[in-house]
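Throughout this review, each integer encodes one residue's backbone shape. One record appears below.

===
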Amino acid sequence: MKKVFALILAVLTLSTTVTFAQDAKAKAVLDKLSAKIKGMSSLKASFSFVAKDSKGKVQLNQKGTIMMKGEKYHVTVPNQEMISDGKTMWTYMKSNKEVQVANYNPAEMTMSPAKLFSGSYAKDFNYTYAGQQTIKGKVVDIVYLTPKSAKTFKSVTILIDQTGMVMSGSVEEKNGNYYTYSLSGVQANGASADALYTFNAKAYPGVEVIDLR
């Protein structure tokens, strides 16, 4: 998942005065997002991703593309590809000419691309509406989520534009690590071929396949 959205957290206020109306607003925004994604047979978008440690030092700064079709996804960054057909996961490390194969377990993928971008949060998260903000000339709704059970991360913040699409967001881990992402160039229904969501080793001569299943 090259921009730091520190300003996002500045507008968030979690207090004991949160009302049911705010929660209802958050649900309405998330439902709109979910309906938007479910209305697409597939999705393709560009993204930027920044990871910082607890001291604020940038550990990773990347741009890439993501394709999604239901639970299937294909994420490409400069030196790596992460692919899943909903049953199997392939992690292709280009510089090592190596692909690791593992079983896909959605129960273990609390922050999978499908959940991150589709609004499938009700089971795993509590959510609070945190108001609106104008980002790059667009009015966005801000929703703040916290996991219902113990997870490695503390919170998730997502910014959703008025069309119902994720524009950007952030994830804060309990150890203080912090991740931000932004989406652009979202294309609906342009990445539907099933072949996009599998790794064909024959198309990559010399690549070592490490089966971890």
Observations:
- The chain is about 15% helix and 45% strand.
- The helical segments are 6-10, 20-38, 113-118.
- The longest helix spans residues 20-38.
